[in-house]
Amino acid sequence: MIDISLRDTRAAARPRLEAPRAHLVGIRGAGMRSLANLLDEAGWRVSGSDLAGAAPDDDRFDVRRGHDARAIELAFDVVVHSDAVPRNNPELRRAEALGIETLSYSRMLARLMQPHTGVAVAGTHGKSTTTAMASEILLTAELDPTYVVGATSIGGVSGGHSGRGRTMVVEACEYRANFCQLQADIAAVLNVEPDHFDWFESHAQLKAAFRRFVRQVPSSGLVLARADCATTTEIVKHLDCTVETFGMKDTSTWQARNLSSRRGYYSFELCCRGQRVCAVKLPVPGRHNVYNAVAAAALASHCGASAGAVRTALESFTGLRRRLQLLGEVRDVALVDDYAHHPTEVAAAIAALREMYPGRRLICAFQPHQASRLAHLLDEFARSLENADKIVVADVFAARESSSQPRAIRAEHLAERLQALGCDALHLASAAQIVNHLKTSLLPGDVLVTMGAGDIGTVAHELGKGLRTFRKAG
């Protein structure tokens, strides 16, 4: 259970309220939204601000649109900010002037994790799903964990929960080496690939950050590493703590055996040290989710979950928003939305869709996320998208990068690279242009996937809203 007594001792003279107060700057971010829910459940009074304003499906918090120093009250116990918020933000500057403690999102997670058995899930891909799966297993086992997931479950409003159990499970992001703020007792490294080029100048720097992350695990703790990722196995060598592996290799401590699939949905036997734990039939598609499920099962088992809880939770896992999420159908066209924004993720998502919809034409509306990532991985992106029948490339979503900054690489370059590979590809700058194009080019039986970590998902939603034949899937 979260200790609600967290306060800044330097500001003891400030007015005291019955419930502690937290103000979240950038509250609409997925992780920040989950943190807000956790604090709310723990008895905090939560407010926030965001350039996008309040979430349309969540009115529990007092959220201002934009950032204004007048939003900061002396009664706040802590002001938390996301990485997207610059240090010269007027609300942060006002909080500091008033002596109110300001913490980054990752430092706040570290503070909240201190009284718990901390479980941190890191890796280039699969963090959100693995964290959510592990948390669901622990809930099913009636261990009531506290958790923070950087995504929202399908049908839910948040990925955060304040539990009464001793375990706290968090998604640990490697950007800016933020995960090194966490003092985890159990750490998972799902995979490590080049990424976050706006922070890490080389792959060696990225690996060094992961190495520092796992070295912080105490000798009494555990590191779980993917067995068939060479970089991951290199990073976890010579640690003082116990190291276990997961995957499909026979040498894995935790292994998925006897895989079978039906239209992209996988069943397997979960084994630990060669012994059968349970059989699992996943309700979420994709071979990549087998890896996520095995990692989640291993983590939850070390936290006290039984084999029965593992099986029950994984077989009832509804999935996360924007992770191969089937939105519905319009004129017999399946509409799918996915968060993939790295070539490995793109390839995995498209491979899963090919299994789910064999023989159907697959159209991918892809929005590159950050020019730096596109510049470093241009060829890899082209090859990962090559398996789609048609690709529409949207303008780059700038995210943390300045949209006014001159760019040597643009979305047009990806479309041109795809065309050079013989793909049916074109560049359309805006979501509105893409929607108008797809309204006239989609055919009955097609599968449309909108893909990227930006706002490309609005394309599928606008297509659905705009046509009367739209019906909810399932």
Architecture overview:
It is built from 14 helices and 22 strands. It is an alpha/beta fold and 474 residues long. The strands form three sheets. The chain has a ten-stranded mixed β-sheet with strand order 8-7-9-6-10-11-12-13-14-15, sandwiched between helices. The chain has a seven-stranded mixed β-sheet with strand order 20-19-18-21-17-16-22, with helices on both faces. It has a five-stranded parallel β-sheet with strand order 3-2-1-4-5, sandwiched between helices. Helix 4 crosses helix 7. It starts with 20 loop residues before the first strand and ends with a strand.
Rounded to the nearest angstrom, the radius of gyration is 22 Å
Please give the largest β-sheet: 10 strands, mixed
Indicate the CATH class of the largest domain: Alpha Beta
CATH H-level name of the largest domain... which superfamily?
Mur-like, catalytic domain
Structural class: alpha/beta
Helix tally?
14
Give the averaged pLDDT, no decimals: 91
Q: How many separate domains? A: 3
CATH topology-level name of the largest domain: UDP-N-acetylmuramoyl-L-alanine:D-glutamate ligase
Name the descriptors.
Protein-Tyrosine Phosphatase, Chain A, alpha/beta, UDP-N-acetylmuramoyl-L-alanine:D-glutamate ligase, 10-stranded mixed β-sheet, globular, Rossmann fold, 7-stranded mixed β-sheet
